[in-house]
Amino acid sequence: MTGMTSTARPLLNRRLAEFGTTIFAEMSALALKTGSINLGQGFPDTDGPEEIREAAVRALRDGRGNQYPPGPGVPELRTAIAAHQQHRYGLSYDPDAEVLVTAGATEAIAAALLALVEPGDEVIALEPYYDSYAACIAMAGGTRVPVTLRPHEGAFRLDLDELRAAVTDRTRLLLINTPHNPTGTVLTREELAAIAELAVERDLLVITDEVYEHLVFDEAEHIPLATFPEMRERTVSIGSAGKTFSFTGWKVGWVTGTPGLVSAVRSAKQFLTYVASGPFQYAVAEALSLPDSYFDAFRADMLAKRDVLATGLAAAGFEVFRPAGTYFITTDIRPLGPELSQNGDGFAFCRALPELAGVVAIPNAVFYDHREEGAPFVRFAFCKRVGVLEEAVDRLKKLAG
User: What is the DSSP letter of 177?
Assistant: First the structure.
């Protein structure tokens, strides 16, 4: 019969059965439906530098990248990525053998996990985690082992003893995200040194998601894990143009690592997109060559936006965890009281917030295996125009009466 299937087995691969429509799609649809300000999904509402946008137009008109670019990425971009790593961190990579361009950092994460993880391998990830981590570990057949960041003195902190205890004989790799989405935590030199020592001691691979490397505030410092002793040879480092240059739709990310690691990731990546973002690769090569003043101004602009939203959220009655990095603020909704906070239920609160205040946010619980750990926490994005943030703050004041 038309439209019927002959098998009783579910159509969706069982590894993906727990992953339905993402919360981002649900909340963005809710924002449109209610006319709310969308501080849920993390994309800017203005484009990045005009000269970089024009560089993409120029590449397109000149016929550069309109056909399949080279599988590892165009040479100009791979060279620029290597130069960026050298200039910023003193990390030396061969553009031909140790750099791989990907369709955004999300594909880089997927390709790295598919390449390096086999069924039965355990992957330790810091919880709360970016939602694609869980799906990609599942697609690789690995077992997700969360280590939870918990609030301590105004920030979310990693318990190094808990991390050490999570490692077993089945642990294949650590998946480390710093600056950390969604909590805004930036791991310290001491914490990173301890992670490096653990990786070397237990012979673990590490994937580091560093897409917010240029968004660190106050006294925080981004230090790539690959800079620590014996870590370059076991670390797959992931970066992205979208977060740094505010062109998230271009989907240009990259991987750096040893020839063996990059070759392994490329083996998986070639059967995902093969290549992507041809003309944009040339533009991102130019973007990475922008002077330090661009990166300094970008950080200063985002810091000012952070402070506008953080101050407004505190005035509205939230407990605010002022982030040391990224462009997200995590809040605790419980100080709003049991009625407004929906008894500390972040999901219910976020679904009610558009009607209560005309603003959309994301419940952090979606980023947890231990949902109860994340239940009272809600994430707001501040990568928006200052006027939009100020309007959101005015609306949120309704919560404080």
Answer: E
CA distance 157 to 150: 5
DSSP assignments along 327-343, one per residue: SEEEEE-GGG-TTTTTT
pLDDT band at 20 (very low <50, low <70, confident <90, very high): confident
Contact call for residues 261 and 269 (beta carbons, < 8 A): no
Cβ pair 325, 388 in contact under 8 A: no
Of residues 194, 187, 196, the one with CA closest to residue 155: 187
Answer whether 254's CB lies under 8 Å from 81's CB.
yes
Q: Which residue has the tokens 């039965």?
A: 120
CB-neighbour burial class of residue 387 (10 A; exposed 0-12, middle 13-18, buried 19+): exposed
C-alpha–C-alpha distance, residues 51 and 391, integer Å = 30
**Could you report the per-residue pLDDT of 93-117, keeping only the tens digit for each?**
999 999 999 999 999 999 999 999 9
Beta-sheet strands, E only, within 210-335 = 235-240, 253-256, 319-321, 328-332
Is the per-residue pLDDT at 372 higher than 70? yes
- Rounded to whole angstroms, how far apart are CA atoms 240 and 247? 10
Give the chain's radius of gyration (CA, Å).
21
b/e sequence 139-152, b meaning 16+ C-beta within 10 Å: bbebbbbbbbbeee
Q: Which of 29-43, 173-187, 268-282 has the lowest mean pLDDT?
A: 29-43
Buried b (16+ CB within 10 A) or exposed e, 232-243: bebbbbbbbbbb
Q: What angle do CA 177, 346, 37 make, to 5 degrees?
A: 85
* Residue 359, strand partner residues: 37
Enter the pTM of the model.
Answer: 0.95
What would the two tokens of residue 210 be? 């560093």
Two structure tokens written together for 281: 């690769």
Q: Which of 309, 299, 300, 297 is nearest to 387 (CA)?
A: 309
Gap between the Cα atoms of 180 and 216, Å rounded: 10
Helix, strand, coil shares, percent, the chain, to 5: 45, 15, 40
User: CB under 8 Å to 132, separation ≥6 — which residues?
Assistant: 106, 109, 110
By DSSP bridging, strand 122-127 and strand 205-209 are: unpaired
Q: Report the interhelical angle of 292-316 vs 386-396 (nearest 10°).
A: 10
